[in-house]
Amino acid sequence: MDEPIKKISIVVSKGSLDGIYPGLIMANGARMEGIEATLFFTFFGLHGVIDKKMDKIKVATVGNPAMCVPSAIGPGLPTWMGAIPGMSWFATGMMKKEMEKLDIPPVREFITMIHDAGCEIYACKATVDMFHLTKKDFCQEVDDIISVGQFYEKSVGSQIIFT
Known about the structure:
Number of domains: 2
CATH superfamily of the largest domain: DsrEFH-like
Strand content: 5-15%
Number of strands: 5
Strand order of the largest sheet: 4-3-2-1-5
Helix content: 25-40%
């Protein structure tokens, strides 16, 4: 019999709604199952924990060949349609409405809920430095700004998931 997963570390690198939520959902699911969880936000994924940006996350429509609005089984939209003014706003509104029906909280509330459940949340030092950010730019749930090496140290024994 396989050993059960006891610890996961999730890397969130995309700053769109469809890039941030998979990591949040996986971390929440892990904590609900009693699995130790760590979230590591890097590159544009940092938008999920930057205080002034986390409430304004949108769906990526430009260059998204899987974009199907309003149904995932409907015909996909041609990628050029993602560039139409208002398309990102429309797609984001549709996705948020569907998420509300499933009782999936907004990013800020979800981050708080996951952190309160014991998930550690970190920002990538290299990206923070590259974007000229400081600890005060982040929501209070960010435990620390750490290097990739520190992330690996914290992830010893973890399954590392890149979303």
